[in-house]
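INTERNAL AUDIT FORM
Audit reference: QA-55
Scope: verify that the stored structure record matches its stored sequence.
Auditor: D.O.
Record contents follow.
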Amino acid sequence: VRWRYEGIALHSRDVRGLNGEPSPGWILERPKCIYNPSTGLYVLWAHLDGPAVRPALPTLPTWSNYQLGAAAVAVSRTPVGPFTFVHAVRPPGGMRSFDASLFLDARRGVAYRIQDVEHQSIGFYELDGAFTNFSGKAPVAVLNERREAVAPFYWDGRYYLATSGVSGWAPTAS
């Protein structure tokens, strides 16, 4: 595989918080992108946290205190961007969101955001028709286990969800 630099897809300076506030140090992690055939747009969802905290030692990288626990949503006409920031959002109920994935159920034409909620459960949230917000419906399913790294897929007439145990930055047996 030959990788080619395509530029910055979404710059943190263009991102805003849950109340529209700017910050020079938003942390964007684990981006997921899905194509919406109805709008012709690529929709990017990423874990949004911060703002960045500067460590006491200048040789250490900046980090987040992981208190915001929101998602940043952005759109683009191409999968490589540049993406235009839409908004920051949390799932219905305002619970913090961390690790997540997107899934387009092509059989039904419905997209979902499947996410770790407060490191206590996995919620399956239907997205709106533009794929840029939650539909407002109750979660389709909730797995009340401490799981993360969700990877949903459909195969041979069945839906599957592969996950990992919650362990922070440490490796897990799964």
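Auditor finding: record pair retrieved intact. The chain has a mean pLDDT of 88.
Action required: none
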